[in-house]
Amino acid sequence: MSQRNSESAPPDIYVGLLFVSLAAVITGIIFLMLELRSYNMLFS
Amino acid sequence: MSFVGKILVVVQLVLSVLFMALAGAVFAVHTNWKTKYETQTTALDGAQKDVSNMRAELDSVKQSSQKSVDDAKAQVGQLSEQVQNLTAEMAALRKKNNEDQLELQTQVALAETKAREAVFRATEADEQRAANRALQTALDEVAAKLRQNEDERFGQKVEYENLKQQYNTDLVALAYLKKIVKRHGLETDPKIVAKLAEPPPPVDGLVKDVVLDRSNSPKYVEITVGSDDGLLVGHVMDVMRTGVDGKDPQYLGKIRVIDLRPDGAVCEVLSKAKNGIIEVGDNVTTKL
What we know:
The complex is a heterodimer. In chain A, about 70% of the residues lie in helices and about 0% in strands.
């Protein structure tokens, strides 16, 4: 464990999955912001 | 990475993808409710305005309808009254129609009777024409006879006028002759003359009175028989004196009646016997 903390492990598939998940969350947030903007409820 | 961390990452991934899908779906198929709200609000305002207009129009229509209803009710009243009047009139007309039907039947029956009578009259007229022709023929004959009679009558009239003229002439002559006869004391009444032609009835009487002339001989005598016994003026009687005290009957003369009464007569002495003078009480008779 301490070895894992001192040296960065190479990115594996799960890290990629986490990035994909992050991108999906951001995309979803953008969709919701666009939806809210249509009601003038965002940055109004 | 532990197994749980791996599972969590996968779950994280799945939920993130689901979140993105839902957000994308919402964004892709969302409905802009604000715009729709504004649109609906505008539509609502228009609808409310329309409703107001419609209500105003409805009120107007209601008023006009009420007025129409009132007018219609008044008209219904008038029409009801008119219907009653028409019903009464129709009843009267039906009654009159029945009377007219009855009258029509009567008139039809009368017309049929008249038609039969007309046929009978036509037949009778034919018969009358035939009779008329016969009568016309008879009339022509009678007219011809009448003309003939007229001619005869005219001839007789001319003859009558001639006879009348002759009669007047004869009357003048007769009057002249009667005057001559009267002057000679003769009877002119034809009835008396006709009776004088007959012999006097057998009568007997007495001398009632004697009138003498200047020579003292009897001129007129009055006797006791007259017209009741059948004597007439002009009758001639004999005067005689029956034998009394043994003397013979004596003829004294003839007398003629010149004036008559019912119970006596005055006679003129026609002839006198030489052997006697007529005296009161002597007999007169027509029986000799």
